[in-house]
Amino acid sequence: MKLKSIASLCKSRKTADICTDTYGNQYLGNGSAYYLMPSELELDEENILFIFDVPKDKQADWMVKCMEIPQYLPVADIEKGETQAETVPIELVLYDGSYKLLKDERGIIIFNEKYLAPLADITEPINYYIRWISTSEAFVAVKGLMLQALIAASNESIFPLFSGNFQRSRGQSSGLDESKTRTQNQPGNRGTGGLKVIGVMAFMVFAMMIVGLLLMAIAGWAIEVICSREEARENREEAKKSESRNRKAS
What we know:
By secondary structure, the protein is an alpha+beta fold. The chain contains four helices and eleven strands.
């Protein structure tokens, strides 16, 4: 676990949440991602800013909280009924970074890949699991041999539609193979029939490319909507924290 990467994420919001479970395990995060801390590192409100190397004259700007694990934070190593998520093979690069898409039987979620940076030094294989907390909000459980991190993720109704279209496109591709086989086996199409098959294949490939471009455009629009909502939510949280700090100062 790269503590410097976690510090960078927390510094971007001047927020550090230290959550402790019933077994004494601590999770450190910034509200959008939480990471399991090494057992030998015991964090509290006094030492966390020292570890993050925050100057004393800047510490008043920070919001540091030590608390028990919130009910909405699913920190169990295994959740009942969860299955390993599938990575959607689409690379999305937006104005604030690269985004990763995961899919399970309930839909597709998206999260910023910057939250994977603290896990870069983990040597064991990493798997992803989607832990839904509502119809549109979820946490991505990142696991090695045990739970390593929880990363907040979002889902919009456009994604199941996108997923359905994607599956239908794959079905069309399978149907193309079957159509090719039937065409080749027809008595009237043997010999010169190969040219007809090539023409049909070229047309279908072109159609698939058009469908793919349209789906990518829809997905890009949906991602922009999600990111705008996430940014608005983070701004509201930051405003609340600023108000809280001002009250304490007064």
